Known about the structure:
Elements: H1 3-23, H2 28-64, H3 71-96, E1 107-113, H4 117-137, E2 141-149, E3 155-163, H5 167-171, E4 176-182, E5 193-203, E6 217-222, E7 238-243, E8 248-252, H6 258-281, H7 283-293, E9 303-306, E10 311-314, E11 319-321, H8 324-328, H9 333-353
Parallel strand pairs: 4-9
Antiparallel strand pairs: 1-3, 1-5, 2-3, 4-5, 6-7, 7-8, 9-10, 10-11
Amino acid sequence: MSLLQKLDQIVSRHAELQASLSAGTLDSQKFVAASKEYADLGPLVDAVNELRKTEQELKDTEAMAADPDMKAMAEEEAMALRKRLPELERAVKRMLLPKDAADEKNAILEIRAGTGGDEAALFGADLFRMYQRYAAEHGWKFEIMELSDTGIGGYKEAIATVSGRGVFARLKFESGVHRVQRVPATEGSGRIHTSAATVAVLPEAEEFDVKIDEKDLRIDVFRASGPGGQSVNTTDSAVRITHIPSGVVVSQQDEKSQHKNKAKAMKILRARLYDAERQRRDDARAADRKGQVGSGDRSERIRTYNFPQSRVTDHRINLTLYNLAEVMEGRGLDEIIDALTADDEASRLAELAG
């Protein structure tokens, strides 16, 4: 179907809904559904009408230019209309792009140390703090779910829930392997080391997003332990949940209450299963994410943070910035995320035009 046909179909559907709603013959359930669809289509139909009105104005103005007395004024007006048309077309196409149903959801952020030992864990902690500061910049709530500390300030694994408006839409492109190049604090000779950490951003799932059958779960409780295996709790409050059909295992031990640990573990499990279902529904996204997240090996990278040169490079869009300190503080991350969002939109618009 051509773009013109799509637009005609949308305008016709909007008029059809308006007629049905005005007739008053729909039952309450159908009325609610039709009202929502009518409201959702409204802004797009307004944009289409504005585009068509401008196209007609351009035709009329070009016809006026045939009159010698009107030529100069008509050509000036035509030039302004020609300049405006591409902006209106882009706005209509942008509104036609299918929306990611998860964009408005909260996110579960998971960071794991990859290649590089202690330095990878220290970098993982730096990334975790970067996202924590970024969340604060946007007025989002950042709730730590789990921290696996190395004892020297690094995190082998860190999980948090990020809550707020449009969180997943902003953070979803952060999934992948992040590589760091710097001289570790423990390095006496001043050599630059390369290490990596893996970031996964999952949309937080509501209970209605993914159905989990209790009989598919194996729940084990055990005594929480701290670094080195020493007991940090005298009761069996830690919880491990295994989702038998998928093999997904989630453990939680940060809370003293077994009930709270179970609730946190279920939240993470639900997010992982929901994300897996999203991947199955979208093969292209699955292939993309597999390439990004990988195993934490330094060869599978989406972004490099080079401390000696204060440089950040996102390899997916060949973007290089020299504001590493601002990025690590969270303030400079928007510039990268904006560029990734724009690139994704441009790719999808090109597909739509094709």
